[in-house]
Amino acid sequence: MNGLASKNAPEIGGYPVGTVAHTRAPAKLNLFLELKARRDDGFHEIDTVMVPIDWCDELRIRRSTEPGIRLTIDWLPSRKVVAQRLGIDDDPKRSNDLLSIPVGESNLVSRALSRFIAEFNIVGGFDCELRKSVPAGAGMGGASSDAASAIACAAKLCGIDSRHPKLMDIAASIGSDVPFFLGLGINPMSAIRATGRGECLSPVNLAEPLHVVVIYPSVSLSTGKVYAASQVPDEPIDGSEIVRSLERGDLRAITRRMINRLSEPARILAPQIDEIIESVWRTSGITCQLTGSGSACFAIVRSPVQARRLANLLQATLGRTSSAGSGAVIVGTRTTQVPTTISIQ
Ligand SMILES: C[C@@](CO)(OP(=O)(O)O)[C@H](O)COP(=O)(O)OP(=O)(O)OC[C@H]1O[C@@H](n2ccc(N)nc2=O)[C@H](O)[C@@H]1O
Ligand SMILES: Nc1ncnc2c1ncn2[C@@H]1O[C@H](COP(=O)(O)OP(=O)(O)O)[C@@H](O)[C@H]1O
Question: Member of which family (predicted)?
């Protein structure tokens, strides 16, 4: 028990009941993603280089005496505004899948916290407020990042060391990308190379932050379906070259070495991706690439000013030309770090 416990609060380890941990859960981009082999357990051996970016969900977790997890979800700045940007109906009854985030055990926040409670024999439970900003099914790892943030907040609230090895086990059991967002043992870092099924991590020191424009069309893709439609190449490309370019800060070389082996299956499942890539090229002459299993794409630019300019240009063009007749969320942002700060209230 630490010295912050109030006199009347039940002592169940860590901070007292009622304490709230608040954090921002960043999205990620895959600058490089190669498939090395298909495994017998249904997963693929991959070689990927990921960067966390400053486009974040917000998560507040409160310790409670009541067992179990209670989760509420809302969109930032509001469901209505996000629906407008995507050119979709915001009425949950006539709903579309794009804004429907599962509550209950299929939400990775709930799943991660349930595992956490079981692993550490925690007395009581957690009340969670998740405010989504990162689109789902975008290849930006929103759900994985939320889960990692939930684990990190719960550990802090319960007085468990952030480097406790069980936290990594819980993370890996929730999803291949969750260990990356937990940032364990590589604290703090700006990029990471992940191998295995995504859980073997080694830090990459970016020479300088990268400025990016991210474009999310009104379509979400299932990671499992995209992997299922993918092909492992006969001669996979190695990620070491792009790692060297990132560490040198050579933007031209970085852009030249970016690849995503999941692009092909994702483009077949969602033709909007081609439209985005072509539109960015036509507008700016800059290479645009899919992140993860899609559907979001990104372009690396030289400065925040160029990011703003390109984002504005794309906002005008993509809305008009989209074959789906719908909008897109376009954000100019930059790389950030994981893990992010957790504040205690
Ligand atoms: C493609 C990537 C690239 O960073 O990101 P996203 O597009 O999901 O953000 C990841 O490999 C996704 O990791 P994650 O989203 O955690 O996937 P998981 O829940 O572990 O797996 C979902 C499904 O994708 C397939 N899968 C996932 C990871 C992997 N290395 N090989 C696979 O074949 C499996 O069929 C698995 O059942
Ligand atoms: N906290 C969460 N936020 C968003 N989606 C979630 C969450 N928990 C579970 N999901 C489910 O996981 C799916 C994939 O989530 P996400 O990580 O956003 O996509 P991706 O794997 O493409 O990066 C969503 O479509 C949704 O059904």
Answer: Belongs to the GHMP kinase family. IspE subfamily.
